[in-house]
Automatic annotation (TrEMBL):
Keywords for the protein's UniProt record, in alphabetical order: Lyase
Residues of the Mandelate racemase/muconate lactonizing enzyme C-terminal domain: 153-259
Cross-referenced Gene3D superfamilies: Enolase-like C-terminal domain (3.20.20.120), Enolase-like, N-terminal domain (3.30.390.10)
Native organism taxonomy: Bacteria, Pseudomonadati, Pseudomonadota, Alphaproteobacteria, Hyphomicrobiales
InterPro entries in the cross-refs: DgoD-like (IPR034593), Enolase-like_C_sf (IPR036849), Enolase-like_N (IPR029017), Enolase_C-like (IPR029065), Mandel_Rmase/mucon_lact_enz_CS (IPR018110), Mandelate_racemase_C (IPR013342), Mandelate_racemase_N_dom (IPR013341)
GO terms for MF: lyase activity; magnesium ion binding
Any Gene Ontology biological process: amino acid catabolic process
Entry-linked CDD domains: MR_like
Protein name: Mandelate racemase/muconate lactonizing enzyme family protein
Taxonomy, superkingdom: Bacteria
Amino acid sequence: MPADHPPQAALPPIKIRSIEAAPLLGESPKGGWSQEIRPEDSIHAIIAVHTDAGITGYGSSFTDGRLVQAGLQVLAPLYEGENALEPERVSEKLHQNTFWMGRGGTLTHTISGIDIALWDILGKATGIPVGRLLGGTYRRRVQPYCSLLMEEPERMRDVVEEYRAKGFRAFKIGWGPFGRALDSKLDEAIVRAAREAAGAENKLFVDAGASDANWPHGLKWAMRTAEMLNDYDIGWFEEAVKPDAIDDFCHLRRVSPVPIAGGEVLTRRQAFIPWLTRGAFDIVQPDVTKVGGISEQRRIAWMAADFGVKYIGHGWNTALGLAADLQMSAAFPDADLVEYIGGSPYVDGILAEPFTLDEDGYLGIPEQPGLGVALDRDKLAKFVANPAALFV
Protein backbone atom coordinates (compact mmCIF):
# COMPACT_ATOMS: atom_id res chain seq x y z
CA MET A 1 0.00 0.00 0.00
CA PRO A 2 1.41 3.46 -0.87
CA ALA A 3 2.85 5.37 2.06
CA ASP A 4 0.35 8.21 1.63
CA HIS A 5 -2.55 5.80 2.25
CA PRO A 6 -1.87 4.23 5.65
CA PRO A 7 -4.25 1.55 6.92
CA GLN A 8 -7.31 2.95 8.66
CA ALA A 9 -8.35 1.56 12.01
CA ALA A 10 -11.81 0.04 12.06
CA LEU A 11 -14.47 2.00 13.86
CA PRO A 12 -15.26 0.43 17.22
CA PRO A 13 -18.87 -0.71 17.66
CA ILE A 14 -21.41 1.93 18.58
CA LYS A 15 -24.11 0.27 20.64
CA ILE A 16 -27.82 1.03 20.49
CA ARG A 17 -28.79 2.40 23.88
CA SER A 18 -32.49 3.04 23.29
CA ILE A 19 -35.02 3.78 20.56
CA GLU A 20 -37.87 6.25 20.85
CA ALA A 21 -40.92 6.79 18.63
CA ALA A 22 -42.97 9.97 18.47
CA PRO A 23 -46.30 10.01 16.59
CA LEU A 24 -46.83 13.14 14.49
CA LEU A 25 -50.17 14.72 15.39
CA GLY A 26 -52.18 17.87 14.85
CA GLU A 27 -51.73 18.74 11.18
CA SER A 28 -51.84 15.42 9.35
CA PRO A 29 -52.57 16.25 5.70
CA LYS A 30 -55.60 14.84 3.93
CA GLY A 31 -54.95 11.74 1.88
CA GLY A 32 -58.01 11.75 -0.35
CA TRP A 33 -59.06 8.47 1.27
CA SER A 34 -62.71 7.40 1.41
CA GLN A 35 -62.30 7.38 5.21
CA GLU A 36 -60.50 10.71 5.29
CA ILE A 37 -57.54 11.46 7.52
CA ARG A 38 -58.21 14.01 10.25
CA PRO A 39 -55.55 16.50 11.39
CA GLU A 40 -55.37 14.81 14.78
CA ASP A 41 -54.85 11.32 13.31
CA SER A 42 -51.43 9.70 13.49
CA ILE A 43 -50.26 8.29 10.17
CA HIS A 44 -46.50 8.92 10.55
CA ALA A 45 -44.02 8.57 13.40
CA ILE A 46 -40.49 9.87 13.93
CA ILE A 47 -37.99 7.33 15.24
CA ALA A 48 -34.81 8.25 17.13
CA VAL A 49 -32.06 5.68 17.73
CA HIS A 50 -29.81 6.75 20.63
CA THR A 51 -26.34 5.25 21.02
CA ASP A 52 -23.67 4.96 23.68
CA ALA A 53 -21.41 7.19 21.57
CA GLY A 54 -23.81 10.12 21.84
CA ILE A 55 -24.82 9.87 18.17
CA THR A 56 -28.54 9.83 17.45
CA GLY A 57 -29.95 8.75 14.12
CA TYR A 58 -33.42 9.60 12.85
CA GLY A 59 -35.94 7.76 10.72
CA SER A 60 -39.62 7.75 9.88
CA SER A 61 -42.36 5.10 9.77
CA PHE A 62 -45.55 5.35 7.71
CA THR A 63 -48.18 4.00 10.10
CA ASP A 64 -50.03 5.00 13.25
CA GLY A 65 -47.43 6.05 15.80
CA ARG A 66 -49.07 3.97 18.52
CA LEU A 67 -48.31 0.86 16.48
CA VAL A 68 -44.69 1.93 16.15
CA GLN A 69 -44.42 2.41 19.91
CA ALA A 70 -45.85 -1.07 20.47
CA GLY A 71 -43.54 -2.50 17.80
CA LEU A 72 -40.49 -1.09 19.57
CA GLN A 73 -41.49 -2.91 22.76
CA VAL A 74 -41.63 -6.20 20.87
CA LEU A 75 -38.34 -5.59 19.06
CA ALA A 76 -36.36 -4.22 22.03
CA PRO A 77 -34.76 -7.54 23.10
CA LEU A 78 -33.42 -7.93 19.56
CA TYR A 79 -31.92 -4.47 19.07
CA GLU A 80 -30.76 -3.41 22.54
CA GLY A 81 -26.95 -3.38 22.68
CA GLU A 82 -26.62 -4.06 18.94
CA ASN A 83 -23.98 -2.37 16.79
CA ALA A 84 -25.61 0.68 15.22
CA LEU A 85 -22.93 0.76 12.50
CA GLU A 86 -24.34 -2.37 10.85
CA PRO A 87 -27.80 -1.37 9.57
CA GLU A 88 -28.32 -4.20 7.09
CA ARG A 89 -27.34 -6.95 9.52
CA VAL A 90 -29.33 -5.50 12.42
CA SER A 91 -32.44 -4.91 10.30
CA GLU A 92 -32.26 -8.41 8.84
CA LYS A 93 -31.94 -9.79 12.36
CA LEU A 94 -35.16 -7.98 13.28
CA HIS A 95 -36.94 -9.36 10.20
CA GLN A 96 -35.69 -12.92 10.58
CA ASN A 97 -36.57 -13.24 14.25
CA THR A 98 -40.12 -11.89 13.97
CA PHE A 99 -41.40 -13.67 10.85
CA TRP A 100 -43.91 -15.67 12.88
CA MET A 101 -45.58 -12.44 14.07
CA GLY A 102 -46.43 -11.49 10.50
CA ARG A 103 -44.34 -9.98 7.73
CA GLY A 104 -45.26 -6.65 6.24
CA GLY A 105 -47.34 -5.09 9.02
CA THR A 106 -46.55 -3.11 12.14
CA LEU A 107 -43.15 -4.67 12.77
CA THR A 108 -41.97 -4.16 9.21
CA HIS A 109 -43.07 -0.52 9.27
CA THR A 110 -41.31 -0.06 12.60
CA ILE A 111 -38.12 -1.71 11.31
CA SER A 112 -38.27 0.72 8.37
CA GLY A 113 -37.81 3.70 10.67
CA ILE A 114 -35.10 1.97 12.69
CA ASP A 115 -33.17 1.05 9.56
CA ILE A 116 -33.26 4.61 8.18
CA ALA A 117 -31.99 5.88 11.53
CA LEU A 118 -29.16 3.31 11.57
CA TRP A 119 -27.98 4.44 8.14
CA ASP A 120 -28.10 8.02 9.45
CA ILE A 121 -25.87 6.95 12.36
CA LEU A 122 -23.44 5.13 10.07
CA GLY A 123 -23.13 8.25 7.94
CA LYS A 124 -22.64 10.53 10.94
CA ALA A 125 -20.02 8.21 12.47
CA THR A 126 -18.02 7.99 9.24
CA GLY A 127 -18.60 11.55 8.04
CA ILE A 128 -20.14 10.28 4.80
CA PRO A 129 -23.60 10.95 3.28
CA VAL A 130 -25.81 7.90 3.03
CA GLY A 131 -25.97 8.06 -0.76
CA ARG A 132 -22.21 7.58 -1.01
CA LEU A 133 -22.35 4.76 1.55
CA LEU A 134 -24.87 3.06 -0.73
CA GLY A 135 -22.34 2.97 -3.53
CA GLY A 136 -21.86 6.25 -5.29
CA THR A 137 -23.13 9.60 -6.47
CA TYR A 138 -24.97 9.50 -9.78
CA ARG A 139 -26.41 12.97 -9.25
CA ARG A 140 -26.20 15.89 -6.84
CA ARG A 141 -29.70 17.17 -7.39
CA VAL A 142 -33.00 15.57 -8.38
CA GLN A 143 -36.37 16.76 -9.63
CA PRO A 144 -39.20 16.54 -7.11
CA TYR A 145 -42.73 15.96 -8.33
CA CYS A 146 -45.28 17.81 -6.23
CA SER A 147 -47.85 15.28 -5.02
CA LEU A 148 -51.34 16.81 -4.86
CA LEU A 149 -54.82 15.50 -4.17
CA MET A 150 -57.36 15.42 -6.99
CA GLU A 151 -59.91 18.20 -6.79
CA GLU A 152 -62.90 19.30 -8.83
CA PRO A 153 -61.58 20.75 -12.14
CA GLU A 154 -61.54 24.46 -11.28
CA ARG A 155 -59.98 23.84 -7.89
CA MET A 156 -57.53 21.38 -9.47
CA ARG A 157 -56.36 24.06 -11.87
CA ASP A 158 -55.87 26.55 -9.04
CA VAL A 159 -53.88 24.12 -6.89
CA VAL A 160 -51.49 23.10 -9.67
CA GLU A 161 -50.98 26.74 -10.62
CA GLU A 162 -50.20 27.56 -6.98
CA TYR A 163 -47.42 24.99 -6.78
CA ARG A 164 -46.13 25.77 -10.24
CA ALA A 165 -45.71 29.35 -9.02
CA LYS A 166 -43.63 27.98 -6.13
CA GLY A 167 -41.18 26.51 -8.60
CA PHE A 168 -42.31 22.91 -9.16
CA ARG A 169 -42.01 21.61 -12.71
CA ALA A 170 -43.41 18.11 -12.17
CA PHE A 171 -46.72 17.15 -10.57
CA LYS A 172 -48.69 14.10 -9.54
CA ILE A 173 -52.44 14.28 -8.93
CA GLY A 174 -54.25 11.47 -7.18
CA TRP A 175 -57.07 10.06 -5.09
CA GLY A 176 -59.97 12.43 -4.27
CA PRO A 177 -62.96 12.20 -6.67
CA PHE A 178 -61.03 10.58 -9.55
CA GLY A 179 -62.62 7.23 -10.31
CA ARG A 180 -64.75 7.33 -7.18
CA ALA A 181 -67.45 9.60 -8.59
CA LEU A 182 -68.10 6.99 -11.31
CA ASP A 183 -68.04 9.74 -13.91
CA SER A 184 -65.50 9.35 -16.72
CA LYS A 185 -66.20 12.87 -17.97
CA LEU A 186 -65.30 14.28 -14.56
CA ASP A 187 -62.12 12.17 -14.50
CA GLU A 188 -61.04 13.61 -17.82
CA ALA A 189 -62.00 17.17 -16.84
CA ILE A 190 -59.78 16.92 -13.75
CA VAL A 191 -56.82 15.68 -15.79
CA ARG A 192 -57.40 18.32 -18.47
CA ALA A 193 -57.44 21.09 -15.86
CA ALA A 194 -54.22 19.81 -14.28
CA ARG A 195 -52.46 19.56 -17.64
CA GLU A 196 -53.50 23.09 -18.62
CA ALA A 197 -52.25 24.44 -15.29
CA ALA A 198 -49.00 22.45 -15.36
CA GLY A 199 -48.17 23.48 -18.90
CA ALA A 200 -47.27 21.26 -21.82
CA GLU A 201 -43.56 21.52 -21.02
CA ASN A 202 -43.84 20.07 -17.49
CA LYS A 203 -44.32 16.52 -16.20
CA LEU A 204 -47.70 15.25 -15.01
CA PHE A 205 -48.50 11.88 -13.41
CA VAL A 206 -51.84 10.38 -12.32
CA ASP A 207 -52.47 8.17 -9.28
CA ALA A 208 -55.89 6.48 -9.20
CA GLY A 209 -55.32 5.28 -5.64
CA ALA A 210 -56.97 1.90 -6.16
CA SER A 211 -55.64 0.70 -2.81
CA ASP A 212 -58.34 2.84 -1.17
CA ALA A 213 -61.12 1.02 0.66
CA ASN A 214 -63.77 -0.51 -1.63
CA TRP A 215 -62.24 0.69 -4.91
CA PRO A 216 -65.15 0.49 -7.40
CA HIS A 217 -63.34 -0.31 -10.67
CA GLY A 218 -61.57 -3.16 -12.40
CA LEU A 219 -59.31 -3.82 -15.35
CA LYS A 220 -61.60 -2.52 -18.09
CA TRP A 221 -61.95 0.87 -16.39
CA ALA A 222 -58.18 1.06 -16.06
CA MET A 223 -57.69 0.19 -19.74
CA ARG A 224 -60.14 2.87 -20.90
CA THR A 225 -58.68 5.42 -18.51
CA ALA A 226 -55.13 4.73 -19.66
CA GLU A 227 -56.19 5.56 -23.23
CA MET A 228 -57.66 8.85 -22.01
CA LEU A 229 -54.54 9.70 -20.01
CA ASN A 230 -52.37 9.16 -23.06
CA ASP A 231 -54.13 12.09 -24.73
CA TYR A 232 -52.77 14.35 -21.98
CA ASP A 233 -49.17 13.12 -22.09
CA ILE A 234 -49.33 11.55 -18.62
CA GLY A 235 -45.96 10.19 -17.51
CA TRP A 236 -47.34 7.21 -15.59
CA PHE A 237 -50.61 5.74 -14.34
CA GLU A 238 -50.26 4.69 -10.70
CA GLU A 239 -52.32 2.20 -8.68
CA ALA A 240 -54.76 1.77 -11.53
CA VAL A 241 -56.25 -1.51 -10.24
CA LYS A 242 -56.58 -3.12 -6.83
CA PRO A 243 -53.18 -3.70 -5.23
CA ASP A 244 -53.38 -7.52 -5.13
CA ALA A 245 -54.64 -7.91 -8.71
CA ILE A 246 -51.31 -8.96 -10.20
CA ASP A 247 -52.87 -10.51 -13.32
CA ASP A 248 -54.69 -7.25 -14.04
CA PHE A 249 -51.49 -5.25 -13.56
CA CYS A 250 -49.63 -7.54 -15.95
CA HIS A 251 -52.31 -7.25 -18.63
CA LEU A 252 -52.67 -3.50 -18.16
CA ARG A 253 -48.95 -2.98 -18.55
CA ARG A 254 -49.00 -4.91 -21.85
CA VAL A 255 -51.83 -2.90 -23.41
CA SER A 256 -51.54 0.56 -21.83
CA PRO A 257 -49.98 3.36 -23.91
CA VAL A 258 -49.05 5.01 -20.59
CA PRO A 259 -46.37 3.52 -18.27
CA ILE A 260 -47.85 1.63 -15.31
CA ALA A 261 -46.57 2.29 -11.77
CA GLY A 262 -47.25 0.63 -8.43
CA GLY A 263 -45.92 -1.25 -5.46
CA GLU A 264 -46.37 1.20 -2.61
CA VAL A 265 -48.42 -1.26 -0.55
CA LEU A 266 -45.86 -4.08 -0.87
CA THR A 267 -43.34 -4.55 1.93
CA ARG A 268 -40.05 -6.48 2.19
CA ARG A 269 -38.02 -7.35 -0.88
CA GLN A 270 -39.47 -10.85 -1.19
CA ALA A 271 -42.95 -9.49 -1.92
CA PHE A 272 -41.70 -7.69 -5.03
CA ILE A 273 -40.26 -10.79 -6.72
CA PRO A 274 -43.46 -12.02 -8.48
CA TRP A 275 -44.37 -8.49 -9.57
CA LEU A 276 -40.99 -8.03 -11.22
CA THR A 277 -40.62 -11.50 -12.68
CA ARG A 278 -44.10 -11.36 -14.21
CA GLY A 279 -43.71 -7.86 -15.64
CA ALA A 280 -46.43 -6.06 -13.67
CA PHE A 281 -44.76 -2.62 -13.56
CA ASP A 282 -42.96 -0.15 -15.76
CA ILE A 283 -42.11 1.85 -12.61
CA VAL A 284 -41.81 0.24 -9.17
CA GLN A 285 -42.56 2.40 -6.12
CA PRO A 286 -41.51 0.91 -2.79
CA ASP A 287 -41.88 3.25 0.20
CA VAL A 288 -38.73 3.46 2.31
CA THR A 289 -40.77 4.21 5.46
CA LYS A 290 -42.87 1.04 5.04
CA VAL A 291 -40.90 -1.50 3.05
CA GLY A 292 -38.17 -2.17 5.61
CA GLY A 293 -36.05 0.94 5.31
CA ILE A 294 -33.08 1.80 3.13
CA SER A 295 -31.63 -1.71 3.42
CA GLU A 296 -34.69 -3.25 1.75
CA GLN A 297 -35.27 -0.34 -0.63
CA ARG A 298 -31.79 -0.60 -2.14
CA ARG A 299 -32.20 -4.33 -2.80
CA ILE A 300 -35.56 -3.79 -4.47
CA ALA A 301 -34.15 -0.97 -6.58
CA TRP A 302 -31.25 -3.05 -7.88
CA MET A 303 -33.50 -6.07 -8.45
CA ALA A 304 -35.88 -3.87 -10.46
CA ALA A 305 -32.97 -2.60 -12.56
CA ASP A 306 -32.09 -6.18 -13.53
CA PHE A 307 -35.64 -6.62 -14.82
CA GLY A 308 -35.59 -3.36 -16.77
CA VAL A 309 -38.05 -1.72 -14.38
CA LYS A 310 -37.51 1.90 -13.34
CA TYR A 311 -37.26 2.61 -9.61
CA ILE A 312 -38.93 5.77 -8.23
CA GLY A 313 -39.61 5.58 -4.50
CA HIS A 314 -43.07 6.29 -3.12
CA GLY A 315 -42.65 9.20 -0.73
CA TRP A 316 -45.94 10.30 0.78
CA ASN A 317 -44.45 10.64 4.25
CA THR A 318 -42.18 13.08 6.15
CA ALA A 319 -39.08 15.23 5.75
CA LEU A 320 -37.00 12.29 7.00
CA GLY A 321 -38.58 9.98 4.44
CA LEU A 322 -37.84 12.55 1.74
CA ALA A 323 -34.25 12.84 2.99
CA ALA A 324 -33.87 9.06 2.65
CA ASP A 325 -35.34 9.19 -0.86
CA LEU A 326 -32.92 11.96 -1.82
CA GLN A 327 -29.96 9.88 -0.66
CA MET A 328 -31.32 6.87 -2.57
CA SER A 329 -31.67 8.98 -5.70
CA ALA A 330 -27.97 9.83 -5.46
CA ALA A 331 -27.06 6.14 -5.43
CA PHE A 332 -29.17 4.78 -8.31
CA PRO A 333 -28.72 5.69 -11.97
CA ASP A 334 -32.38 5.95 -12.99
CA ALA A 335 -33.89 7.43 -9.79
CA ASP A 336 -34.38 10.84 -11.35
CA LEU A 337 -37.54 11.87 -9.46
CA VAL A 338 -38.63 12.05 -5.82
CA GLU A 339 -42.13 12.52 -4.42
CA TYR A 340 -42.76 15.71 -2.45
CA ILE A 341 -46.14 16.18 -0.71
CA GLY A 342 -47.49 19.62 -1.48
CA GLY A 343 -48.21 21.59 1.68
CA SER A 344 -47.49 19.00 4.37
CA PRO A 345 -46.15 20.52 7.60
CA TYR A 346 -44.46 17.18 8.33
CA VAL A 347 -42.27 17.83 5.27
CA ASP A 348 -42.00 21.61 5.29
CA GLY A 349 -42.20 22.36 9.00
CA ILE A 350 -39.88 20.12 11.05
CA LEU A 351 -36.33 20.68 9.74
CA ALA A 352 -33.81 23.26 10.91
CA GLU A 353 -33.17 24.06 7.24
CA PRO A 354 -36.27 23.31 5.13
CA PHE A 355 -35.94 21.92 1.63
CA THR A 356 -35.80 24.58 -1.09
CA LEU A 357 -36.10 24.33 -4.86
CA ASP A 358 -33.43 25.74 -7.13
CA GLU A 359 -34.23 27.89 -10.16
CA ASP A 360 -34.87 24.77 -12.27
CA GLY A 361 -37.30 23.26 -9.77
CA TYR A 362 -34.79 20.71 -8.45
CA LEU A 363 -33.78 19.71 -4.91
CA GLY A 364 -30.13 19.52 -3.97
CA ILE A 365 -29.18 16.19 -2.41
CA PRO A 366 -27.69 16.91 1.04
CA GLU A 367 -23.96 16.22 1.20
CA GLN A 368 -23.62 16.39 4.98
CA PRO A 369 -22.99 13.10 6.83
CA GLY A 370 -25.85 10.65 7.20
CA LEU A 371 -29.22 11.75 5.84
CA GLY A 372 -27.82 15.28 5.76
CA VAL A 373 -30.76 16.95 7.51
CA ALA A 374 -31.41 18.08 11.08
CA LEU A 375 -34.69 18.18 12.97
CA ASP A 376 -35.66 21.43 14.68
CA ARG A 377 -36.69 20.72 18.26
CA ASP A 378 -38.91 23.79 18.58
CA LYS A 379 -40.71 23.17 15.29
CA LEU A 380 -41.20 19.50 16.10
CA ALA A 381 -42.71 20.35 19.49
CA LYS A 382 -45.81 21.51 17.64
CA PHE A 383 -46.49 17.98 16.40
CA VAL A 384 -45.15 15.54 19.03
CA ALA A 385 -46.09 15.09 22.67
CA ASN A 386 -42.58 14.62 24.07
CA PRO A 387 -39.95 16.06 21.71
CA ALA A 388 -37.23 15.89 24.38
CA ALA A 389 -37.20 12.08 24.11
CA LEU A 390 -36.01 12.38 20.52
CA PHE A 391 -32.97 14.49 21.39
CA VAL A 392 -31.43 12.97 24.53
